[in-house]
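Weekly modeling sync, notes
Attendees: S.R. (lead), two postdocs, one rotation student

Agenda item 3: backlog of single-chain predictions. S.R. asked that every request posted to the team notebook include the full sequence so nobody has to chase files. The rotation student volunteered to paste the first one in as an example of the format we agreed on. Action items at the bottom.

Example entry:
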Amino acid sequence: MTPVLKATLTLAGVIAAGLPLLWLTTPPPTTVPQSAPATTPGLRTINASLYFSGEPHRITLWHEAKELVQFTDPAAACHFTLNLPLENSTEIEFEIEWPDNTPGMKGATLYLEPDGLEQKGESMWTMPEDSTVHDIFYFTW
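Predicted structure, as returned to the notebook:
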């Protein structure tokens, strides 16, 4: 055998022996731990009913400064659906305007019925001389 052939075969043997060593000595692949999903709450569908006295001009409901719904000159109780964050409590801000000549105390009741939870209702009233009520309904489940 010629020296060049011996050197080539020796080099090939060293490389062949070294390839498994590369595989055996590499660090294990790092697995990225699955992080918990973000804690932003999802939305819950809530059936709502709003009952009121008299014949208001306008009714507006807000949640966290975002308008949810507005009714103009409603003649009867309003039934609608809201999509609100999944929470144990919620606040619904509202404003109701009646004509100035509406006699007596004026009021409104809001019922919320989230899927899988009991129905809750809150009522607010104005004095006879007031034609507007702007307040907050507080609901806790």
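Discussion: group reviewed the output briefly. The helical segments are 3-25.
Action items: rotation student to repeat for the remaining queue; S.R. to check formatting next week.
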